[in-house]
Amino acid sequence: MLMAAFRDMQWRRRRFIIAVVSTAIIFAMTLVLTGLANGFRWEAERTVNALGVDQYVIKAGASGPFVGATPFAPTELARVADAPGVEAAAPLAYAGGTATLGDDTRNIDIFGAPEQGPGMPAVSEGRAPVSPDEVAVSSTLGRGLGDEVEIASRTLRIVGIVENSTALANLPNVFLTTDGARQLVYGGQQLVSAIGIRGTLEQPPDGYRTVDRAGAVEDLLRPLRVAVNSITIVAILLWVVAALIVGSVIYLSALERLRDFAVFKAIGVPTRSVMGGLALQAVIVALLAALLGTVLSLLLGPLFPMQVIVPGQAFVALPVLAVVVGLIASATGLHRAVSVDPAVAFGGP
Known about the structure:
By secondary structure, the protein is α+β, with helices and mostly antiparallel strands. It contains ten helices and eleven strands. The two termini are 23 Å apart. The relative contact order is 0.19.
């Protein structure tokens, strides 16, 4: 039966090749979508880790230090800095904004922190900003040292470059001093979005609470939650489409081989062997599609304008899921092959 299955694939190779390529494209898009959803978290974790902040002190009613921040006056800064377990504390500011680059305007994320941090990332070129009219920008902004950028009607000079620093779906991050960010975000008022701590604060002041790095990452991801859920739904639908493609090919093959199956059953070939041959065809198609889909995903990923970071476990899980899809997809063909009457073998044309 196995040889018969391989011979059938060889005889109908054009149909099976089309099925493999079509399913491979779907598997590739599934991997890319998985990489997009994972890329959102990857860039948020990269940004938060680069800030070097272990804990954020925020208002008790705020949901996070960034997107969900509630601005407050840092009256407790000295007390927090002197608390046991705290190595350093700094006033931080955050807001979304736009940067005008000649005739081009781009959305950006604005971070404010002292020059020495915590809250100021390491720069790959130049230095950290030390005055309100200086800024360090992500390399994805496409500007170099000494260039000028207009943010919130203020012209700032770029003194540092932070390599590939993005958040909120590939928006470039820009970093100013705390005073510089206050002028952009709060109109010069002495407000902050959080107090960044290097170390551990055991007991926050009354009316405040602490958020760790994981909580800060979730805060940055909150605006993208609907997008991530939508991507997940589309990925699930693509798996269904892949199963339908494989299933339709196997079902058509079973219809065209009804007389063959009748002959096999008439000469005493066990039903499980007939089923095994069809299932083998479905699994081979799915595995070849998974292999080709993996290669295609690596080629398609760099074409997207956002970070596509496919996790390693996704590549491992794809062949396993492909086999499951192949077996499920072959169910209709298996049912048709098993139900054929052996008497068909002795019928006329």
